[in-house]
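Contributing new complexes? Match this layout with alpha-D-glucopyranose.
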Amino acid sequence: MNLNRRTFTAGLSTLLIAPAALAQIEGEHIATKPEHPVKAIQDTETRAQRNERMAWWRAARFGMFIHWGLYSIPAGTWDGKRIPSVGEWIMNTASIPVADYKALAPQFNPTGFSAETIVSLAKAAGQKYIVITAKHHDGFAMFDSKANDFNIVAATPFKRDPLRELAEECKKQGVKLGFYYSQDQDWTAPGGAAYKTGDHQPPTFHWDPAQNGDFATYLHTKAIPQMKELLTNYGDFPVVIWFDTPTKDMTPELAGEIVELLNQHPNLIWNNRLGGGYKGDTETPEQYIPATGYPGEDWESCMTMNDTWGYKSYDDNFKSTETLLRNLIDIASKGGNYLLNIGPDSHGVVPAAEVERLQQVGKWIDVNGEAIYGTQPTLFGSEAGSFSATEKDHEGKPKFIAAWDWRSTTTPNKIYISIFNWPANNTFHLDKLPRKVKSAYLLADKKHLKLTHTGNSLDIHLPEKALDPIATVVVLNT
Ligand code: GLC
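Output block (do not edit by hand):
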């Protein structure tokens, strides 16, 4: 494996910049743009305070996203027709009137739901935290809300609060819990916002007069009271609030009111999708992995296992375990987190294809988790690929051509090399070592490996066959 100078230095320079940027003097406030009507924790905390607040999240690297709600009943089909796009958007994509959609609630009785099963699945997969949809764009609350009765306890025969059951089970099993809350879009509450689909017309993009109303009123009478409930009724949880699809309705002033709420929970981590000019804590690339990550930033790539977040009965376009696992390793090598989604069905049961893949990922992590959790990004860089000199991406920028032979993660005294593509003649070659390498071994069986140093290059002599066809980890002691 030869690293050519340009991509090596390019990769290295990106990563070298990151640490320098991070190395602000302890106690120094980070200048944030723009002036917020209400200062958020990101505007006031020091670098040290931020590192402390983000520490568990950064070390976790792997989380479970759960999209579950009334949309799991139609499961992608309405009036006998298959509805394109993601399942959780069916009300909008199929222009379902509010009354018809709300009529799903009395049919929702997911007695197959088991918090223990789901938390155990996350744990077995190696997912350190769970983020579940407390309320999605359809406005249905998957928790016991006194603020609005369109919820799973008041409006369905199920009458149980899955968020409470998950909170108790997460506490028991040592998994952290966060809540996704659609703060702007709400397609069943008058005044709730809506993103455009199909021929829905501006300015509201509503498709049913029952949706019309005042956004600030919706926020003050439903969204903010529900966020208060979510932030106070579930013990130590949530540790994360996952906002989504901000709209122009969310002015800095209205967002400021939500920030006042969030500020009362100083350890809370919230993403960059609140709106109103607030940056939040985490960048959230969706359904893709950024070419070189977000150097110096906390970021989390969220992804579906098939083509939908919410359950669709006929969507079996599942990614392979190999793809999911190499995504996780790729993301960790770029200093990010992977929030991988499951979409339980209307019985509350996780589709078998998702269970199988998570269990297989978990098996690899049981052996190789050390190369993922609590690691820092690669010290190399160009192993991830390079920007094409000729091809352009959809933004007209040089297209990134990913390479999938290996990835690397780092800890103070170790460099982890996850090999995807076993090298010819069983010799793995590294140029320009970023650190002095003392010895090397295979992580899975601790077998010591012979090394040949040539100047600042290294040949690692590997066994005949890869120990794991998806990724075999070599550990370099440095
Ligand atoms: C998008 C989808 C939304 C989903 C979210 C997850 O915003 O519209 O339905 O919940 O991605 O990242």
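Reviewers usually confirm one structural detail per submission. For this one: The mean pLDDT is 93.
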